[in-house]
From TrEMBL:
It comes from Mastacembelus armatus (zig-zag eel). This is Kelch repeat and BTB domain containing 2. The keyword Repeat applies. Residues 38-105 form the BTB domain. Keywords: Kelch repeat, Repeat. PROSITE patterns: BTB. Gene3D superfamilies: 1.25.40.420, Kelch-type beta propeller, Potassium Channel Kv1.1, Chain A. InterPro entries: BACK, BTB-kelch_protein, BTB/POZ_dom, KBTBD2_BACK, Kelch-typ_b-propeller, Kelch_1, Kelch_2, SKP1/BTB/POZ_sf. Coiled coil: none annotated.
Length: 631
């Protein structure tokens, strides 16, 4: 036999026999259930568990040391386990004999404690990963203390990051006020606190001290020294020591001002900038630009204040055609879409083309890490679903034709704290190209010339006033008591006959405004456009004002972008900022955008800048040359 044959035979011998391993495990489980050949009895309170030492020692370092140490315990037939719950011990024994572990929200913490005591590493890891996935605003402070108690660095790290991200919402919680002094200092000293004012940190420190001032007065100096005094307003500084015990005041004053830095380092939340976040953009290559379907999708954002472009982490799995949402508390989510499968051979053209699979995935954007974190998947796969946030929940509405008309009508709701989805009352009709906004704690869905309102408290849809025009693919945004429906394509007789929604010659963009209180639509002032030639108008609320980002076509056929701002009082649109001539490249025609506050220091700045174009402020309106008004 040659050497190669020997190597192959040895390799086959070394490979585990999966069928035999499964059969052996099943026999051990049968012996346990029938109490055959057991050689040890675990006594937990009033419950006894006859087991096999070999099985227990295999999965537990605690039992391995006990049974192999040569001490008296190794020779006993009965072992009493104190301060443990029989139910959790039973779960671990079942895992030892089957490899199956049943973890729930109600048992994960006591099960972790039991596995920690018995040193069952596999159970510890699974419980830890379960807890990390379940960290939310309501339990993050408790998870920090829990991880600290059991020296679980991974759980502590993830819990602390959630506390930093949600600090304005968690520092009043009872669990926060009960934090140990060491953990409190660790949180208050963090540069990554998501606070816009240092007064929030000061208030958190004072609440913790006042929760038990008698016992915590010894920590006055160490706690208050975490406050970056020079970041406080002058008014706050003057009132800084009001309410502190008089006998400690002078000591605290001296210690604080001696340790105060000359220039404070701003907390991460103080560096946030409001940015336009773009998805479904084109990609830059050596030969020009290609659609995102040809290469991994790219997400970028643009800061109007700094006039800079930053790169966000690409969506997982080359995801595209997803929905995107920024919640009021500034969390970014993407959901649904499709992912490429593989290149499939097309018989008619004799070419290979990429096949796609629609997905039900949901991802949350970790702004500090510039990464996407998977959350519970939706109940339905959806392409370009409308995502909105209403009354504390995320809603996924409709989407392109995935699963037929019924799926296009479905509506589901996501609970962020519980990480679960549930189905809600479906849309009255299946629509293409619909858009959704939230106003007055209700969801408004618009397309063509109709609009429906969803009332969460009643879980029902109500038909509202019809619009004056029949348009699709428009962009919508809500601000105060008004909803703006902007741009899009007029529909004539059939969806196949479409043209841009504006004056003839495409020199302006149609705007309709809905008054929620009056349940009435009216035509608003058109947006002046420079040779507007396609429906690339994206409406957003930017810096508390209704704005639109418009893709304009120029005489040289180069695309230029501009941000227009709406003046409610005078019903006029003003050119606020030209964009592409300074920093932004060609995004294509299918891009979408939302507004969110991101941290520039956590993002990669894009160094690419296109050549500048002449700043042309003239456009044609009804055949006349008009100057664009500037704010």
């Amino acid at each position: 036999m040659d050497c190669d044959s020997c190597d192959e035979t040895m390799s086959e011998c070394k490979s585990p026999n999966t069928n035999y391993a499964v059969s052996l495990l099943e026999q051990l489980k049968l012996f346990y259930e029938q109490k055959l050949l057991t050689d040890i009895v675990l006594q937990v309170e009033d419950t006894e568990f006859p087991c096999h030492k070999m099985v227990l020692a295999t999965c537990s370092s605690y039992f391995r040391a006990m049974f192999t140490s040569g001490l008296s315990e190794s020779k006993q037939t009965h072992i009493q386990l104190k301060n443990l719950d029989p139910t959790n011990v039973q779960i671990i024994i079942t895992y030892a004999y089957t490899g199956n572990l049943s973890i729930t929200d109600s048992n994960v913490e006591p099960l972790y404690e039991t596995a920690c005591f018995l040193q069952v590493e596999d159970v510890l890891l699974q419980c830890r990963d379960y807890l990390v996935k379940k960290i939310n605003t309501e339990n993050c402070v408790r998870m920090l203390s829990f991880g600290d108690m059991f020296s679980c660095s991974v759980l502590k790290q993830n819990a602390k990051r959630m506390i930093e991200h949600r600090f304005p919402l968690v520092y009043r919680q009872e669990a926060f006020l009960q934090l140990s002094h060491e953990l409190l200092i660790d949180v208050l000293s963090s540069d990554n606190l998501n606070v816009e004012r240092e007064e929030t940190v000061r208030e958190a420190a004072m609440l913790w001290l006042e929760y038990n001032m008698e016992d915590r007065s010894q920590h006055l100096s160490s706690v208050l020294s975490q406050i970056r005094i020079d970041a406080l307003s002058e008014v706050t500084q003057r009132a800084w020591f009001q309410g502190l015990p008089s006998n400690d005041k002078s000591v605290v004053v001296q210690g604080l001002y001696k340790s105060m830095p000359k220039f404070f380092k701003p907390r991460l939340g103080m560096t946030k900038e409001e940015m336009l976040i773009f998805i479904e953009t084109k990609l830059e290559t050596e030969k020009g630009y290609v659609s995102s379907g040809s290469l991994p999708n790219v997400m970028v954002c643009y800061s109007p204040q700094a006039e800079k472009v930053y790169k966000l982490s690409s969506p997982p799995g080359d995801l595209e055609k997803m929905g995107i949402l920024v919640t009021p508390d500034n969390d970014v989510f993407i959901a649904g879409g499709q992912v490429p499968l593989k290149n499939c051979h097309h018989g008619r053209t004799n070419r290979y083309r990429t096949a796609f699979r629609p997905v039900d995935s949901l991802f949350w954007f970790d702004a500090q890490q510039n990464s996407w974190v998977p959350k519970a998947p939706m109940l339905c796969a959806r392409l370009k679903p409308s995502l909105v946030y209403c009354e504390g929940y995320i809603y996924a509405i409709g989407g392109d034709s995935v699963g037929g008309e019924l799926n296009k009508r479905t509506v589901e709701r996501y609970d962020r704290e519980k990480d679960v989805w549930s189905m809600m009352t479906p849309l009255p009709f299946a629509w293409n190209w619909s858009t959704s906004v939230v106003a007055h704690n209700c969801i408004y869905v618009m397309t063509n010339d109709v609009m429906y309102c969803y009332v969460p408290s009643a879980n029902t849809w109500v038909e509202m006033a019809m619009r004056k025009t029949n348009r699709c693919l428009a962009s919508a945004v809500a601000c105060g008591d008004l909803i703006f429906y902007i741009g899009g394509l007029h529909m004539f007789n059939s969806p196949s006959f479409l043209r841009p929604a504006g004056n003839m010659g495409c020199s302006s963009v149609t705007v309709e405004i809905y008054d929620i209180n009056k349940n009435e639509w009216r035509l608003g002032a058109n947006i002046p456009a420079k040779r507007y030639a396609d429906p690339c108008v994206r409406a957003v609320v930017l810096l508390d004002t209704v704005c639109i980002l418009m893709r304009e076509t120029h005489l040289n056929d180069d695309a230029k972008y501009a941000i227009y701002q709406y003046d409610v009082e005078f019903d006029r649109w003003y050119l606020w900022q030209p964009v592409s001539e300074r920093v932004l490249w060609d995004l294509g025609k299918d891009f979408r955008c939302v507004v969110g506050k991101l941290y520039p220091s956590c993002l990669e700045e894009s160094p690419w800048k296109p050549p500048t174009y002449p700043d042309v402020d003239m456009f044609l309106l009804n055949g006349e040359l008009v100057t664009i008004p500037r704010s």
